[in-house]
Specification:
The complex is a heterodimer. By secondary structure, chain A is mostly beta strands. Chain A is built from no helices and 11 strands. Chain A has a single domain, classed as Immunoglobulins (Immunoglobulin-like, Sandwich). The radius of gyration of chain B is 14 Å and the shape is globular. The chains are: A mainly beta, B mainly beta. Chains A and B meet through strand 4, strand 5 and strand 9 of A and strand 5, strand 6, strand 10 and strand 11 of B.
Chain lengths: 111, 115
């Protein structure tokens, strides 16, 4: 089934450690996004990429970095995790219209 | 700046009763509107969307939403809910950004259907 694959599904991470959340799509969508979901706040945009080789900052980019070496992959890196980064992270892509597809999420706990 | 407001954080309702989940948006440009549903411990699923044309849009499981431009609203309704409709519902708008588009989400409404 075509879609977005995120890994890992969940992770417990010690504060100060680094981690990369993986996101892969097989739909050849140019636009990709990373959101974090927090209770009472909905989903907030962290970073985005309009096409391979380009990235941009969303609403809450601090502490996160992304890269887009090719169309399919859009990893999100936490260089030095802090407890406030405990959240559920969703990767998404958009087709040439207005169809957004979401991954199943990564639940991250920073302790 | 664009924003989405979902005034109700939780809506409890009895099974087979009607329900309305409210969504208002703020935008100075034309927007495209979406409702997503999230079941416990799952990702987001598209429920319905308004892009253009008829202002009343329907989903396959009985939900409907009406785009009201004058009131900048996109409320979600269902005439008779089921226990299985218990979930978190997110209203979102797709707005222009950096030669592309992004989704802006409301804070979500938890629909709790009781027997």
């Amino acid at each position: 089934t075509a879609g977005i694959t995120q890994a890992p599904t969940s992770q417990i991470l010690a504060a100060g450690r680094s981690m990369t959340l993986r996101c892969t799509q097989d739909m050849r969508h140019n636009a990709m996004y990373w959101y974090r979901q927090d209770l009472g706040l909905g989903l907030r945009l962290i970073h985005y990429s309009n096409t391979a080789g380009t990235t941009g900052k969303g609403e809450v980019p601090d502490g996160y970095s992304v890269s887009r070496a090719n169309t399919d992959d859009f990893p999100l890196t936490l260089a030095s995790a802090v407890p406030s980064q405990t959240s559920v992270y969703f990767c998404a892509s958009r087709d040439s219209g207005y169809g957004y597809t979401f991954g199943s999420g990564t639940r991250l706990t920073v302790v | 700046a664009q924003s989405v407001t979902q005034l109700d954080s939780q809506v409890p309702v009895f099974e087979e009763a009607p329900v309305e989940l409210r969504c208002n948006y703020s935008s100075s440009v034309s927007v495209y509107l979406f409702w997503y549903v999230q079941y416990p411990n799952q990702g987001l699923q598209l429920l319905l969307k308004y892009l253009s044309g008829s202002t009343l849009v329907e989903s396959i499981n009985g939900f409907e939403a009406e785009f009201n431009k004058s009131q900048t609203s996109f409320h979600l309704r269902k005439p008779s809910v089921h226990i299985s409709d218990t979930a978190e519902y997110f209203c979102a708008v797709s707005v222009p950004m950096d030669s592309s588009y992004k989704l802006i989400f409301g804070s979500g409404t938890r629909l709790l259907v009781r027997p």
